[in-house]
Write a sequence for this structure.
């Protein structure tokens, strides 16, 4: 049975979770997906809402969503007048969410959305975890034999740059604490790599991320993923996010390698041709110095930037005893005793007053 309209208050009034569901040309199956999500949440006893965002669909998806509203009181429909991408939909939906916990998923029948209550309960049970991600055990998307090696490579780059194990970098099924994510929502790109951005933002700012294995089915309808374009954007976004939080990890290694190669080459050149350095040797050393200088300057900018909102969230949680150093832990690992209550959520500027 669906929630009554009276449960549509803010999470301070008792709403526990909001499911943000971006929809773009999903008319053939979005109703079945809504029924599956609504049935699972209603059976769980959670106080919830489903925020379905129509991203300017051209196949009648909005009409299907509007038709479902009268019989599904927990459903809110937010239509876009122009297509903004899944990242834009998730960013705006997360800001508009009324639940303490926000769930991201897709409307294409690929994720096991009947397990959404399980992810929410994990966050409620363990206050030291701020995000739970469904780690897919198989690849069923389009261009399967091209996507897998590309995703593996990008994931390994992310693991190297963050020094953390990441079982699934870009899973679309995840639950997280809304007040923790608010400072990072502005960083989300418009496209698919928004999920990668949220993962890296949490990891770089001492917010613990847990992974739970999930099955992954072949999607219904036509995939919006374009291999060459989106894989390129994925790797750029990983580098961009690490540059945003820790530019030395991106720029300093190539600078040091170029400097080492230049010095070795200079010694060889000196032995072969005393007091003569070829232009290539000079170029190697100068390139190393320029990149190294850029790395130090970028690090100075990052350290002087002052992400006050994110730091305030972490500091408040630490004072309450709810934080441990960020990690990626198997589900079920014992955690410190959770605090009795979380501090009040800061009110965003656009909703103040």
């Amino acid at each position: 049975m669906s929630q009554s309209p009276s449960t549509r208050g803010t999470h301070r009034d008792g709403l526990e979770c909001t499911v943000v569901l971006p929809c773009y040309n999903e008319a053939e199956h979005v109703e079945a997906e809504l029924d599956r999500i609504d049935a699972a949440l209603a059976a769980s006893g959670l106080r919830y809402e489903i925020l379905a965002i129509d991203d300017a669909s051209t196949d009648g998806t909005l009409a299907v969503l509007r038709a479902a509203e009268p019989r599904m009181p927990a459903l809110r429909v937010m239509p876009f007048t122009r297509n903004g991408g899944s990242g834009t939909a998730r960013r705006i939906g997360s800001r508009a969410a009324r639940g303490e916990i926000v769930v991201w998923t897709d409307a294409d029948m690929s994720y096991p959305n009947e397990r959404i209550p399980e992810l929410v309960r994990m966050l409620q049970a363990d206050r030291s975890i701020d995000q739970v991600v469904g780690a897919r055990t198989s690849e069923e998307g389009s261009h399967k034999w091209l996507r897998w090696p590309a995703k593996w490579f990008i994931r390994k780059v992310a693991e190297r740059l963050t020094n953390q194990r990441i079982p699934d970098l870009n899973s679309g099924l995840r639950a997280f604490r809304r007040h923790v994510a608010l400072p990072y929502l502005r960083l989300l790109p418009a496209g698919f790599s928004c999920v990668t951005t949220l993962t890296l933002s949490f990891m770089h700012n001492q917010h613990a991320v847990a992974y739970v294995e999930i099955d992954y089915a072949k999607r219904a309808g036509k995939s919006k993923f374009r291999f060459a374009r989106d894989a390129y954007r994925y790797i750029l976004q990983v580098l961009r996010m690490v540059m945003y939080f820790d530019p030395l990890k991106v720029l300093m290694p190539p600078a040091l390698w170029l400097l080492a190669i230049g010095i070795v080459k200079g010694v060889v050149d000196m032995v072969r041709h005393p007091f003569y350095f070829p232009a290539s040797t000079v170029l190697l050393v100068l390139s190393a110095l320029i990149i190294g200088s850029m790395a130090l300057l970028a690090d100075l900018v990052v350290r002087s930037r002052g992400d006050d909102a994110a730091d305030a969230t972490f500091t408040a949680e630490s004072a309450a005893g709810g934080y441990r150093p960020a990690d990626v832990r198997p589900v079920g690992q014992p955690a410190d005793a959770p605090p009795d209550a979380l501090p009040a959520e800061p009110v965003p500027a656009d909703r103040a007053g």
Q: What stands out?
A: Residues 1-12, 309-353 have pLDDT under 50 and may be disordered. The first helix runs from residue 30 to 44. The CA atoms of residues 184 and 201 lie 7 Å apart.
